[in-house]
Amino acid sequence: MNIMSEAAVEKALDKKMSTVNFKMVGKDVSVYYGEKRALFDVNLNVRKNTVTALIGPSGCGKSTFLRTLNRMNDTIEGCRVVGKITLDTDDIYDPTVDVVELRARVGMVFQKPNPFPKSIYENIAYGPRIHGLARHKADMDEIVENSLQKAGLWNEVKDRLQEPGTGLSGGQQQRLCIARAVAVSPEVILMDEPCSALDPIATAKVEELIHELRSNFTIVIVTHSMQQAARVSQRTAMFHLGNLVEENETDKMFTNPDDQRTQDYIMGRFG
Amino acid sequence: MSSAAITDTVSPAGVNWHSDEMKARRKARYAADRRLQIYGIIAITFALGFLAILVGSLSFTGYKAFTQTVATVEIVLSTAKVDPANIGEADWRGIVRGALRGLVPDMKRSEERKFFEMFTSSAPFLVRDAVVADPSKLTGKSSFAIPMADPVDQLAKAGISRDVPENQRRINDKQIGIYDQLVANGVISTPFNWGLFFNADSRFPELAGLAGAISGSFWSLLVCFLISFPIGIAAAIYLEEFAPKNRITDLIEVNINNLAAVPSVVFGLLGLAVFLGWMGLPRSAPLVGGLVLALMTLPTLIIVTRVSLKSVPSSIREAALGVGASKHEMIFHHILPLAMPTVMTGAIISLARALGETAPLLLIGMNAFITSPPEGVFAASTALPTQIYIWADSPERGFVSRTSAAILVLLAFLVLMNGIAIFLRQRFERRW
Ligand SMILES: Nc1ncnc2c1ncn2[C@@H]1O[C@H](COP(=O)(O)OP(=O)(O)OP(=O)(O)O)[C@@H](O)[C@H]1O
Ligand SMILES: [Mg+2]
Question: What is the ipTM of this complex?
Fold first, then answer.
């Protein structure tokens, strides 16, 4: 079912370095919400400097899997994760792991734009400040400008940095959230349906942005749009009822998938 | 709906929106809307009506207390009569009586006692204190405003009728005659009664004021706020953000909700037993009053704070955690600031409730008779509601209007506090 056999994954882990450059490796990941099991032994690897799209019908566990990658599930009452997920070589569910550091290294952009009700500047500066990434105001100004540049928002907001972030349009807010995630210099950025609240033009901007971010970051994106997955990702993983059905190169996935269920889903036969 | 539906036809789905039955149905629904509105208006009218009656009747009885009948008396002082180094030791009684005698030169010696009774018996002390406060009065002529005793004050404000037989009123015909003479001479006036706010309590209505009660209430509320606010917020944050959801926290939650409904007199008994009996804190002290009021407001404050923490959208929590904020950073940088306006509103409204609370303060002795404002949280004191209680119990006529006036002052403070709460809510309310 997987692109790599279990043994190969094991081997890659053992060597602490893989021939293919895996940024994150999920092994036999299962997630329970109380008694209810939402993910079934998912084995999914995320390649470095690659955009990986997670697709699948609603309720199949895409968000659940995504949130295991930076332990956002910890905040949900009764949620339990079993299995092993590594970032580079560190087991992120190890009791000694510092979640704050993990979430700084694995940033997240949410489905609904959620800027802090503070100024645009403060939205970006907050993360770097708590992590102590800027020593002086000038450093911070630079981080803010760089992040907004990377998010393609700088020209639109450079004259109104002190205005509230909540006053921006939906698309701008989402790019602000991306800039906020970028500002902490994460290694991986998780995006849960980042364009679902945006119009086609704003969506195009965000997609373009994802393209550019790819050279510096590893990106995992959940999307409901097949076209979007095809446009932005190099690899695609298809979930169904809590199982990982197939993970493959995006081109192959959309032209000649290995699994019948993927074909059906892409053809719009269920979902 | 297609344009055809606007004329009287059946819509494609087979529903005829223009049938009489449909029209009648909609009409009934609109009628229900209107009924609800009318009920609301009636309810508000009732509430406002009762409020108007309350404030109206209080003002009617209380307005008299906001002025005080005084006699303006000229007193000539010299360093011969008063030793500047020892002002307090001078014969103030003699000096004041001499000056008062000058108001009615042809007074018979036998009538003097009744005449002096017309002025407040504390007149010598008032004059002494005024001179101590301003020693320049020691030489030459200065005028002093001397409050008239309660019966004269009542006469001036038509609280005592001249038609009542002499033996049934506390002021005799002779005194009325003198009063009229003083009025004719322009000695009598009724200025605004600042003493109501700046004097402490007194047995004599003409001198009694709310200074002690107001500062007692102030100290109590300060203690109450300083204790309940941090503890309430800390408890709420712990319960809402950190506590595991289990039997014990469920039990704590139920108990907090129950405590919020416990009658305040019970907290007074608790304060009596624990703070006075066991810890040996001083009776009647604003410190103890504040502690008891803090116990009383804590549950409400915890509930309000928890609700407002809960109402901060989870997207903000996720945003904070998503950039790697720790839990305490999430709470103190994002959640609490957003919840703060509501918390402050809740705190001020609980404080307003504590300000009006009487029963627990009676139990810890804050209804003592105390003639000077407290100098801190350990000094014996009254509070506004207990002062009202004391005055309402006093027999002198002058205290009747003072009781109403004190209630009006209390209401004014309540309105002020609630006004601040509304202001805070509107000023800092956030939208997201
Ligand atoms: N907080 C939760 N508590 C209980 N069950 C949950 C919770 N979150 C998700 N689930 C369940 O886990 C399963 C997977 O949910 P998930 O949100 O991962 O789906 P999804 O693939 O992201 O769907 P969508 O495309 O609609 O966002 C669903 O059956 C859902 O009901
Ligand atoms: Mg989802």
Answer: 0.85
